[in-house]
């Protein structure tokens, strides 16, 4: 879902979900991403990924570039874009699972890059079950030299972070990945975020809170990880970083809490404060946008069919600003929403979408 400039969203991008329904049907973070003036979205039920241009004069207008392309597997759930090269990689979370990558072409859209389809061959189904024993997110590390994937396990069979080397000249991936086991006490690495100025990441983990993995001295045994517990958490799953507060914000679908955390120069994590979004809010995906030199946190709260907005005034000071009800979108706009359907067809819908099945949130600030 794309929310542009605090305005009513005019476009929602969604693929068929292959009968995987309900809140958090994808068990993932990053199903839709914005990079520059482009939007990238996965279509789980049709096993495709698509790229759109954002109109510079009217940012609520999107134009597909080329057509949706095959994801190289089944049930794509997450997409990542390299800041260094623009390379796009998708994570498939179904029976045929793993990653596949593309270059951006202004005419043809997404074009497959040779030697980037890498299968994980995990015993998953299409659609996947979860959240235990399912895949979560794909991201590039800070310098673009690694492609990272979060694989959730269970308390009895902890998951791992997979990492491939990226050839930044050709875009190709190493033949094999390095498996970094979940940190002691962790089990289900879910949402991933870069820790700026380092080669480390934070991974939310609904089994405990969050973990920190340092890839600076990566060995065949994997990156070392440490755990920070979030007391009282039920399912801390999604994470976003604020450049203004230098803190991370994590949502918990079980408690409806946003947890603010700080990670110091020694890569030690602490919980700063928590902010309730209301009982039954079912907080899922989140995103942070900078407007007028201030950061704002947007949280998709499907339980109350809203996007909640918090103004990040400073560390430990997130002020509730707005609850934007998705049900208040005028019916004329609802009927004009465009959904990416099977076989790459666009179709107008005449019925109200099932807001309970919404997932994916990204922001674009119109310059």
TrEMBL record:
<protein>
    <submittedName>
        <fullName>Uncharacterized protein</fullName>
    </submittedName>
</protein>
<dbReference type="InterPro" id="IPR015943">
    <property type="entry name" value="WD40/YVTN_repeat-like_dom_sf"/>
</dbReference>
